Amino acid sequence: MKHEVLRMIRATDSYISGQEISEKMKVSRTAVWKVIEQLRAEGYDIEAVSNRGYHLISYPELMTGTEIMSRINTNWCGTKVYYRKDTGSTNEDAKEVAENGGTHGSLVVAESQSSGKGRRGRVWSSEKGSTISMSLLLRPTFSPSVAPKLTLLMALAVAEVLHHLTDQKVSIKWPNDVLVNGKKVCGILTEMSAEMDCINYVVIGVGINVNNTEFPEEIAETATSLLNEVGNRMGRTDIIINVMDFFEYYYGLFEEHQDLSDFVNLYDSYLINRNKEVRVLDPKGEYTGTAQGINDNGELIVQKEDGTFVRVDSGEVSVRGVLGYV
């Protein structure tokens, strides 16, 4: 109810009466007043004028379920938000939501997480009040073999948002890192629950360094934040809303072909490794080559030193620049 009241107040440039809100919400005016008081306690400056109603003057930089749902403009992506002040892992929370009947497009957001997961068992922790830790629950109708491509789709959505919000160089390190000026600001982890021929659900976890200023020594040379690169603080909710908007649009296109054929050129334009020498860390044996770009299946095409071409799948390998992270 709270996010719906806030959405109504936001929707008008003037005033909206408590009576109008109560009639649309089918609740009492007292219930509306209580919600207004809750919002004020959270930092929303809401003016109340007799015979005119309520008017939103200003609002705090919050990343809550109420704030996101009152501003989201998508049809299904992120329209239901589960907010956690502190959690271990938003991916684990999203799995729990899924097991309890959570709907397609549900979003788990946490102010901080202590044991988020990265690829290959790495831990991704988040700094309270400075990062975005979120996990999107999907219930696809396509086969399980298609799901890994969603990681690249989310990376592209994040890259597009950061490209539009900043004037810095945004790029993607295949398959799941988004970089600004060559340093990592975002990591993505996709997990799936599936049977042999059908998906129960997919969870896409996204961690974005937004307003961080410090990083652990072991990642200080390769990680950064938008604040460090852009020079000013950015609204985390603004970023979330835009990522949901881009992802919903891309997902609709993706469902038609169930591959990345509509996105290859755009993805390659962000690919930081393209036409560069890379080292493929394959458990079957490491090798070097030149990254050419991705194909319709999201595989990285690498030309080996002997001239042969290899399609690199993201499931079992890691790709790094020969001279370092990128």
Describe this entry's structure for a reader:
The chain is α+β, with helices and mostly antiparallel strands and 326 residues long. It contains nine helices and 16 strands. The chain has helices spanning 2-10, 18-25, 29-41, 65-71, 90-99, 149-165, 226-230, 236-257, 264-270; strands at 45-49, 53-58, 81-87, 107-113, 116-117, 123-124, 131-138, 170-173, 177-180, 183-194, 199-209, 277-281, 287-294, 300-304, 309-312, 318-321. Helix 1 packs across helix 4 (65-71), helix 2 (18-25) packs across helix 3 and helix 6 (149-165) crosses helix 8. The longest helix is centred in the last third of the chain and has 22 residues, at 236-257. The chain is elongated. The mean pLDDT is 91.
